[in-house]
Amino acid sequence: MIKKEKLNNALYALQALMVHARSMAHEKVDHKLLAELLDDVEELPRLIAVAEDKTDDFKSALTDLSEQYSCPYILQQFEQSNNLNGF
What we know:
By secondary structure, this protein is mainly α. About 70% of the residues lie in helices and about 0% in strands. The chain has five helices and no strands.
């Protein structure tokens, strides 16, 4: 699970990752790189769904993804305070 106060941020970070993946597809990046990103993202919903607190693990994964795929705004989505954009 993600701490309640970070849940919306986690969902927005996931959304931003999907938008980033779509952008990579439009840019016609190597399909292996896109597949690697999606493989990495695949683990994140489990961190939200499990019973124990995985907030720090989720943030760590986002930090790694942000660095590896040059998308710092992903981590920024998670770190924003009071991200209430519709959820």
